[in-house]
Input
Amino acid sequence: MSRRGWLWVGFVAVHLVVAVLGFVEPNMPMGDVYLVYEPWVRGALEGGVIPGIAQEWIYPQLAIVPMVLARGLAWIGGYTVGWAILVTILNALAFALLVGRGRSTGRATAAAFWLAFVLLLGPVGMYRLDGVTVPLAIAGSLWLVGRPLLGAILLSVGTWMKVWPAALLAAAVIAVRRRLTVIGGALIVSALTLAVVFAAGGAAHAFGFVAGQTGRGLQLEAPVTGWYLWQAVGGVEGAFVYYDSEILTFQVTGPNVDAVIAAMTPLLAAAVLAVAALGAVRAWRGGSFAALFPALALALVLAFIVFNKVGSPQFLTWLIAPLVVGLVIDRRRWLVPAGVALACALLTQLVYPLLYDRLIVADALAAAVLSARNLLMLTLFVWAVVRVARVPARRTPTAVPA
Output
C-alpha cells in the first residue's frame, strides 16, 4: 500500500477510536455536544431564540452554523454521532488538502502528526466547537501563499466561530506579502456576518462574546491557576475548587484572586501585542513567510493559551495548525516542538477526562499532571518566541505548495 493509502487508513482508524472514546471514557467528554450545543440548536430552530442574536452568547455568531449542520446528520445515530461525523468530514477535507498525492515527505509527516495529536488528545478535541475550527485553520494556513484571499476567508470564518483563529490571521497579516488581500478577506467575512446579525435584530449582542470571556474567573486548567490549585492541594485557607453553574465549568479561588482575575485580560493583550510586534519587526527586516509564519502563529496561539485565565482542554487543538505548517515547510526543525506538543496532548487527555474527578477535589497527582502539561506549553511558547526572534533578516523564497 502507498504512503498515501496508509495515511488514510490511519485517518479512519484514529477518528473511529476517538469517536468511541467519547462514549466510554469517564466524565462525559462529549457532554457539551448534547447538553449544551443541541439545546441551543433546538431553541434556535424551534423557539426562534438564536444565540448571539436574541441573547448574549459566549461564542461568535457563526458558531451556530456547525451546530445546526450536526442536527442535519442526527438521523444517523443521534445528535452526538452527527457531530462526530461532521467533524470527521471537515477533517477529511483538510486532510486531503494536506496529504495531496502523498509525494511530499513534509506533508506526510505533518499529516501523521495531526493524527497522532487527535488520538493523544482524545475525544475532547472532537466533541467541542474547536474541532470544527481546526480543519478551517489548517486549510486556511496552507492557502495563505497561493490563495491568500481564500485562506483569509477560511481563517475569518473560523474566527467568527471561535475567536482563536484570529491569532493565525494576525500572523498572516504580518508575514504574508499580499497582506492587503488577507485583510480584505477578513473584512469581507466580518462585514457579511455583522450585516446578517444586524438585519436579524442582534446588534446589541454582536460582540457579546467578548464581554462573556473578560468577566470569567480563573478556570481550573489555566496555567495561571496553578498557584491557587496547589494552595488548594495543600489545604491553604480560602483556596479551593468550585463549580460555576452559570458558565458550567470548574474554577479556583484563593487569597487576592480578584486582583489576579483583573490583571489577566490586560496581561493577555500585552503578551499578544508584544509577540505580534516582534513578528512585525522580523517581517520589516525581510523575514520570509516560510521562516516567520509558522513560528509567529505558534507563538501567538500559545500566548492566547499561556496568558489566559480560561484553560479548557480543547484549547490544545489550537496548536495543530501552526505545527502542521511548520512540519510542511521544515520538518527537521519542527520535529522537536511537534513532539513536545504531542506530550502536551497526552497529558491533557490524562487530566481530562481521565483524572478530572480527582482534579476537581484538588488531588496532588492530578494537579502534578496538569502542572507538567502547563510547564511544557510554557516551554513551547518560549521556543516559538525565540524562533521568531531568530528569523533571518533577509528575503528568501516562500514555499507552501497550494
